[in-house]
């Protein structure tokens, strides 16, 4: 209940309950109406309003003693005809907008019962306007007019109601309180079946509406500043201002209150005002006005002056003016409490201020705007677009009217294309919930039916990939003035750099730069950039494993775009298409990057990733962007023939895991699947051979291809939780990446194949498919099995057998890490693994408790029964993976 | 237990008449009056008032009134005027 308002009597309460019940029933019945139904009702209402415009205007003037009959009639016509013109083709029932390209459909839901307060200044026009809006949107309204405009509003409601019901609207759709009491208003504002309060009126009504705790459209007072700038069309401006300020004797709250005039045109402007029927007050007259039409106690306008004629106001306060004086123009020297005429004046008294410059004029307008006019209306007359733009920026007003009358301009639809209204939202500045011209859409709940959309996916790979033995010969086709070969010392020493040099086109200036074969540091990168700059390189050949190729990618980035901020570029992201930071597109140098991989695992020669260590800051920087992808990849097995057995296994298991994780990734697509599946097939078949028979050229070739093909898959589908676990564990215990990966791999397959505790949001997939993907892999490998469960179990077993054959440690315990040491490290391992971004494309969202379980499974190795996990897979119906 | 029930088919715009008929049969219905609403695609305030009255009478007689085949648009109206708690629904 509103503060300090007693509840109505029981008899009165029964009356109010009856009104609400009737309105609620009408609103409920109204929900069944179609668009055609409501449109059939609205049109005759509009015609009735037009026909009765003069009648209602006369009633309003007679009752309120405010305003001008002709203007009120015009307002009634605008409230019907102009509003109808705006709403007639608008859909307000059922589907109102469709956005097929976004899969969004907007559906209208009526509000129900609206409790509406209407003002004394625009009484009947506001009722007509709200009735049309309510019918158009299938709502019922209980009206509570201003007590000074009760009878005319009741008549307006009657006309609208009878016309509406005659044309099919539900009975009870409009009612008007029989009399005005604060208690009734308070009771209805609190009523549980009143869904919205639409309060058009003074600050008291608006405040009461917002204080009720109900959703409210409370729109109210203004204080419109006008800037009459020196480039303005003065004749037009003065006529517009007089037209607006005298319209209905200034009762529209958007009408002009203080005109700030540039010094250069001030005298001329005032002369034009005078020529057109305004009286320019001298200092003494202005002083009289300021203490009569403004209440010295409250500082607000004197209610007795509202809506009165200028000549009548002058007569009452003792200023002698001709009988037909349209407007009293009173110069003021400032804005605020010391300058009473700078407040809102809903009568034909206009303050004017002489401004010495644009800056001062704008500041005075800001002052007026903030003196009770926030969010409402501001007006400018100018031909200077820059000044108009600045005015729009500094005014806090929902309606910034340019070169047209404020009051009629703000109503919309007459002087501009704004939405016609009789309710001006003033935004938060005015304590309102909207800054719009209130319209039919504010009388609707708009529902959005959002269909599942298929996200755009991609498959981005280097332009050119050359593979198989002696693929390095293809270097001949890449002309270059200056080529830098970045490689590691061991590779340089065994002659790999010489092989590369041999196949560069004649005339190429070549420099070999040896860099450490470890995760590149910032200083290594910057030294490389210096080398590139010194030799004015136009081609980089990165010859090495992942570290060397990663270093070359970052060197290229910094060489081409020296201002690139690596720290900023390494900012985390969820979706590469929506990431916050953008990689530079403007380049000061252009260089081709050719990557020649000398290991069969990372696939860095085709990936868009690069990792470096910033030792100065003690952080690891991971860069990911397709612009980092090498231009050319050469996958020539001659560079891996001498790879040590241990490295063969570590990199080979990494390759297999890339493919397995890409296959079940939530970003997997038919494009990545084709690569992932092929890489898995090749790795299962050739990795053991390459390990056991390092000189087997076919095995080496196929594994080298497998690593590259797997990288094509995970470059576009990403990896999964296996990598998160391995990153955390490897870093903590100094275990090589491939070995750490191997420890987790069978456990992760079993885990991913089980029904997730938490599903990963995956808009690109139809349901949970990881277990089916694993079953497909088992089929591809010919592992047998009849059910999905059997196939997954067979894949886990086959992976176990492969790892056994490769001689990798099968448990963390085997590495000599004690249970106590591991247990102590576990909380950190879980934290680091959870922070690792790799799992964000995993088919299961790993809970931290599940990460712990996986770590323990890896600790114990095969002793942990995996079948238990796999048995959780339900017998799902056969649905397509894609 | 087998109970006799009275089945009344409601014609589109005759909700009031059907409710009156149902009210009259409440005493003799044995256990239940079923109003078949499948032919009612829109309900007006008069129909709602008749249902309200029928619900009150059924409560007084501790009889059960079931509305069957109510179209969802009509059901929503009944929901909005809080009549759904006063009847049973079927189909």
Explain this structure to me?
The complex is a heterodimer of chains A (882) and B (91). Chain A is 44% helix and 15% strand. Mean pLDDT of chain A is 93; it is low at 863-879. In chain A, the strands form five sheets. Chain A has a seven-stranded parallel beta sheet, with helices on both faces. Chain A has a six-stranded parallel beta sheet with strand order 16-23-20-19-17-18, with helices on both faces. A five-stranded parallel beta sheet of chain A has the order 5-4-3-6-7, sandwiched between helices. Chain A is elongated, with a radius of gyration of 39 Å. Chain A folds into four domains: 22-219, Aldehyde Dehydrogenase, Chain A, domain 1, CATH 3.40.605; 224-416, Aldehyde Dehydrogenase, Chain A, domain 2 (3-Layer(aba) Sandwich); 464-638, Rossmann fold, CATH 3.40.50; 644-870, Dehydroquinate synthase-like, alpha domain (Up-down Bundle). Chain A has 882 residues and is an alpha/beta fold. In chain A, helix 9 (234-246) crosses helix 10 (263-275). Chain B has 91 residues and is an alpha/beta fold. Chain B has a single domain (5-90), classed as STAS domain (Transcription Regulator spoIIAA), CATH 3.30.750.24. Chain B contains three helices and four strands; from the N terminus they run E-H-E-H-E-H-E. The longest helix of chain B has 16 residues, at 45-60.
């Amino acid at each position: 209940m509103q503060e300090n308002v007693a509840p109505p009597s029981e008899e009165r309460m029964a009356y109010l309950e009856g009104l609400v019940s009737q309105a609620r029933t009408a609103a409920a019945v109204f929900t069944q109406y179609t668009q055609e139904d409501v449109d059939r009702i609205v049109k005759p209402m509009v015609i009735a309003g037009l026909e009765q415009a003069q009648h209602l205007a006369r009633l309003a003037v007679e009752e309120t003693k405010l305003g001008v009959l002709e203007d009120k009639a015009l307002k009634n016509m605008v409230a019907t005809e102009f509003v109808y013109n705006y709403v007639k083709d608008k859909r307000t029932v059922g589907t109102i907008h469709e956005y097929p390209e976004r899969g969004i459909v907007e559906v209208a839901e009526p509000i129900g019962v609206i409790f509406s307060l209407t003002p004394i200044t625009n009484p009947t026009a506001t009722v007509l306007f709200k009735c049309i809006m309510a019918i158009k949107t299938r709502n019922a309204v209980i009206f509570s007019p201003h007590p000074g405009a009760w009878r005319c509003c009741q008549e307006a409601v009657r006309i609208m109601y009878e016309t509406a019901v005659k044309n099919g609207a539900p009975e009870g759709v409009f009612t008007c309180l029989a009399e005005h009491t604060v208690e009734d208003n308070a009771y209805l504002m609190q009523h549980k079946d009143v869904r919205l309060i639409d309060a058009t009126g003074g600050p008291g009504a608006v405040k009461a509406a917002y204080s009720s705790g109900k959703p409210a459209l409370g729109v109210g007072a203004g204080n419109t500043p006008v800037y009459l700038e020196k480039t303005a069309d003065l004749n037009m401006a003065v006529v517009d201002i007089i037209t607006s300020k005298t319209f209905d004797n200034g009762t529209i709250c958007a009408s002009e209150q203080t005109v700030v005039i540039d010094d250069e045109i001030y005298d001329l402007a005032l002369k034009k005002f005078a020529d057109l029927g305004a009286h320019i007050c001298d200092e003494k007259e202005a002083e009289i006005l300021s203490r009569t039409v403004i209440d010295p106690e409250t500082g607000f306008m004197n209610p007795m002056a509202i809506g009165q004629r200028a000549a009548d106001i002058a007569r009452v306060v003792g200023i002698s003016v001709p009988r037909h004086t349209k407007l009293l123009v009173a110069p003021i020297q400032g804005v605020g409490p010391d300058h009473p005429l700078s407040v809102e004046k809903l009568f034909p008294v206009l303050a004017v201020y002489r401004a010495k410059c644009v800056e001062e004029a704008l500041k005075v307008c800001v002052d007026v705007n903030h003196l009770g006019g926030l969010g409402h209306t501001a007006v400018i007359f100018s031909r200077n677009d820059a000044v108009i733009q600045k005015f729009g920026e500094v005014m806090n007003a929902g309606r910034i009217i340019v070169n047209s009358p404020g009051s009629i301009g703000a109503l919309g639809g007459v002087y501009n294309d704004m939405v016609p209204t009789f309710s001006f939202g003033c935004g938060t500045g005015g304590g309102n919930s909207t800054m719009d011209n209130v319209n039919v859409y504010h009388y609707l709940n708009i529902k959005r039916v959002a269909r599942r959309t298929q996200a755009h996916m991609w498959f981005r790979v280097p332009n050119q990939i050359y593979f198989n033995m002696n693929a390095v010969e293809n270097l001949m086709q890449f002309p270059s003035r200056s080529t830098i070969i970045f490689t590691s010392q061991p590779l340089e020493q065994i002659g790999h750099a010489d092989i590369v040099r041999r196949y560069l086109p004649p005339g190429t200036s070549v420099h070999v730069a040896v860099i450490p074969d470890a995760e590149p540091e910032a200083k290594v990168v910057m030294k490389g950039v210096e080398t590139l700059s010194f030799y004015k390189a136009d081609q980089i050949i990165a010859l090495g494993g992942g570290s060397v190729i990663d270093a070359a990618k970052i060197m290229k980035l910094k060489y081409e775009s020296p201002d690139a901020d690596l720290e900023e570029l390494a900012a985390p992201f969820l979706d590469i298409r929506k990431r916050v930071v953008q990689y530079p597109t403007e380049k000061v140098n252009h260089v081709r990057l050719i990557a020649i991989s000398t290991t069969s695992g990372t696939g860095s020669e085709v990936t868009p990733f690069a990792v470096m260590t910033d030792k100065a800051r003690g952080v690891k920087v991971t860069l990911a962007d397709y612009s980092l992808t090498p231009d050319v990849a050469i996958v020539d097995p001659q560079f891996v023939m001498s790879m040590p057995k241990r490295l063969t296994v570590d990199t080979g298991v990494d390759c297999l895991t890339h493919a397995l994780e890409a296959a079940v990734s939530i970003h997997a697509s038919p494009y990545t699947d084709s690569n992932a599946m092929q890489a898995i097939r090749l790795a299962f078949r050739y990795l053991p051979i390459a390990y056991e028979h390092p000189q087997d050229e076919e095995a080496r070739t196929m594994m080298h291809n497998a690593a590259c093909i797997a990288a094509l898959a995970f470059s576009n589908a990403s990896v999964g939780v296996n990598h998160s676990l391995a990153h955390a564990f490897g870093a903590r215990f100094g275990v090589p990446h491939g070995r750490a990966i191997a420890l987790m791999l069978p456990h992760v397959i079993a885990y991913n194949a089980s029904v997730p505790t938490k599903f990963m949001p995956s808009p690109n997939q139809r349901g949970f498919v990881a277990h089916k993907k694993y079953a497909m892999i088992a089929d591809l490998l010919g592992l047998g099995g009849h059910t999905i469960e059997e196939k997954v179990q067979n894949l886990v077993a086959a992976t176990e057998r492969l790892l056994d054959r490769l001689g990798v440690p099968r448990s963390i315990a085997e590495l000599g890490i004690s249970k106590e040491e591991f247990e102590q490290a576990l909380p950190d391992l879980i934290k680091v693994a959870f922070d690792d971004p790799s799992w964000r494309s995993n088919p299961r969202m790993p809970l931290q408790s599940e990460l712990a379980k996986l770590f323990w499974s890896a600790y114990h190795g095969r002793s942990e029964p995996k079948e238990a996990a796999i048995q959780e897979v339900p017998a799902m119906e056969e649905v397509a993976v894609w | 237990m087998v109970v006799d029930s009275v089945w009344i088919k409601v014609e589109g715009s005759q909700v009031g008449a059907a409710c009156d008929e149902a009210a009259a049969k409440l005493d003799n219905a044995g256990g239940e009056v079923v109003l078949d609403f499948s032919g009612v695609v829109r309900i007006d305030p008069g129909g709602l008032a008749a249902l309200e009255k029928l619900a009150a009478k059924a409560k007084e007689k501790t009889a059960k009134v079931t509305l069957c085949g109510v179209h969802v648009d009509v059901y929503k109206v009944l929901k909005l005027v809080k009549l759904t708690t006063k009847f049973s629904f079927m189909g």
